[in-house]
Amino acid sequence: MQRLQAFKYELMPTGEQQRQMRRFAGSCRFVFNKALALQQANHEADGKFIGYVAMAKHLTAWRNSAETAWLKDAPVHPLQHALKNLEKAYKNFFEKRADFPRFKCKGQSDSFRYPDPKQIKFDQANGRIFLPKLGWLRYRNSREALGELRNVTVSLSGGKWFVSIQTRRVVETPLPHGGAVGIDMGVARFATLSDGTFYAPLNSFKRHETALRKAQQAMSRKQKFSNNWKKAKARVQRIHARIGNARRDYLHKCSTTISQNHAMVCIEDLQVRNLSRSAAGTTETPGKNVRAKSGLNKAILDQGWFEFRRQLDYKLAWSGGHLIAVPPRNTSRTCPACGHVSADNRQSQARFACVECGFEENADVVGAINVLRAGHARLVCEVSGAVMPPAAGTHRSDSGRLMPT
Ligand SMILES: [Zn+2]
User: Fold this and answer.
1) pTM
2) Residues with Cβ < 8 Å from 133, sequence gap 6 or more?
């Protein structure tokens, strides 16, 4: 099987390279925002969606216009890639996987990608990489990148520059081991498995919350754009980066353990909008989502859940397993013992007690069991041809060979 993998290294750029990278990231952001504004204005004028090819022509015009001639200083492929990113953001929105594309601000995901491997020279032996318009850059050679280089992303995080090298290589298809498991995602417990194991809540943010609040307050007291303000701002960004890293580490640990020990993992097919809606206070789905009410906390949870699912998906693929997304229907209200569906079964946030047969269990474990059942049901349907095609995006069509036992 083919395996795509990213290898990330810290760059050791010269001062001039840092200035250039900042400019390139700014140019890509500018192109993204300009294209988004154009797309919106066009939509308001009842125009049709502007596809990538047409948008790339606009980009050429911008690069040739006297007003934005500085765009020519940036490498063209990363600028085009910014347009591809916008198109992808729209696609995710159209397919209800994400909210409407937002304008990018400076300091938030400063990055750009070189999509063409032919323009890149990767000299691992000497710990350096050649990128168009930047020249040779040194990086901290922390581990060996395996496979054939596909593309390179340069990004700024916490005041440091990184290069992420995506490669492709052929590896032997592994045989999956372990059984099937269902996962219930929540707030009080980040993830609960149908076998009863659970993972602590995703609250790495809380630990740094005070530090962040203090740093933000300090920043607000400084005069904007003064040197002290810049210092305070750098501190806020460092704390943000630290929070992000802690969260990513945690998600990776969870997703690695689960994917290494199971051949089939079933998860609720949560969509951003489902979460947003219920978090806004609709009583359609009285259950776990409603708990994630407060704005920032909710955003972090959304991110965490989606990132977790993304990681599970590719890690399971690496280990020969499968991720199956099931629609979140009554998973918190159905009795696993007798099948009775009632909101009354959910006595409290933590406790499930069936009003019909008296079955009692932790509510999150019940949710996970029901997710697992729904996943099994889905597989059986597909194998017999009753459901065609699979509705969930992450589901692989060759999952028929993985019958539940
Ligand atoms: Zn029951």
Assistant:
1) 0.69
2) 20, 24, 73, 74, 75
- Residue ending a domain, choose from 126, 143, 170: 170
- Note the pLDDT tens digit of each residue in 57-73: 999 999 999 999 999 99
138 lies in a domain? yes
Please list the active-site residues: 184, 268, 364
Tell which of 170, 203, 234 closes a domain. Answer: 170
Those residues whose beta carbon sits under 5 angstroms from the ion ligand 1 are: 335, 337-338, 340, 354, 356-357, 359
Separation of CA 230 and ligand 1 centre (Å): 60
How remote is the CA of residue 331 from the centroid of ligand 1, in Å?
13
Compute the distance from residue 354 Cα to the ligand 1 centre, in Å: 5
Q: What is d(CA 377, CA 403) in angstroms, rounded to the nearest whole number?
A: 11
Classify burial at 180, counting beta carbons within 10 Å of its beta carbon; exposed 0-12, middle 13-18, buried 19 or more: buried
Strand locations in 87-147, DSSP E? 110-114, 121-123, 128-131, 135-139
CA of 221 to the centre of ligand 1 (A): 58
In three-state form (DSSP H/G/I as H, E/B as E, the rest C), the secondary structure along 57-95 is HHHHHHHHCCCCHHHHHCCHHHHHHHHHHHHHHHHHHHC
Span 257-283, pLDDT tens digits = 999 999 999 998 876 544 444 443 333
* Ligand 1 centroid distance, CA of 353 (Å): 8
